Every structure is written in C-alpha cells, then in structure tokens.
Amino acid sequence: MKQHKEFQYVYNKGKNAHSSSVVLFYLQANGVKRVGFTATKKVGNAVIRNRSKRRFRALFSEYSPLLNDGTYIFVAKVALQETSYLSLKNDFKKVLAKAGALRNV
Prior knowledge:
Ribosomal Protein S5, domain 2
C-alpha cells in the first residue's frame, strides 16, 4: 500500500488495536493480504523510523501464515525504539489477537 487514500480508508473503516509500542488497523477482505507500515516524525529521525518499519516487516513475515486475509496497517509508537525484540513480538501478537486477525487453526 502506498497511496494516502488507501490508508485513510482502512483507518476509517477498519478495526484498531493498541499496545504500548504498536497500533494495528485491520480491515478484513477476501483473497488478499495487503500491508502498510508507518512511523511518524514523533517516533524519531529517518534512521529510527526506517528501523521501526524494518522490525515490523520482519515480524509480519513471521506471522503472515497465521493471519486472515485483509489489509493491515502497523503504526509505530514512540516507545518502540526502546522496546526489546521479545516485548515487541508480544505486543505484535497481542494487537493481532485483539483485532481478530489471527487465523483459528
């Protein structure tokens, strides 16, 4: 996802779930998984924002087989830069479960 209007549509129509370091906006859809990662300037400079998005991409690829089809937008919070990998992984799983995005296997 790259266009502003795509992000706005998911923000307005989708479910959201928050944790201490990540916010997830999820809109259920059939047949496709689309994903977007954002980090505002509040998070830090460009290096920190890009690192945050890389961490999200790594976690998303790890959890991707367990996820329902739909559109996912992950938003970094300021606390993300001090969060360890294990804490971030727990937060990531928690927001996915809150939004109902995990597949029931």
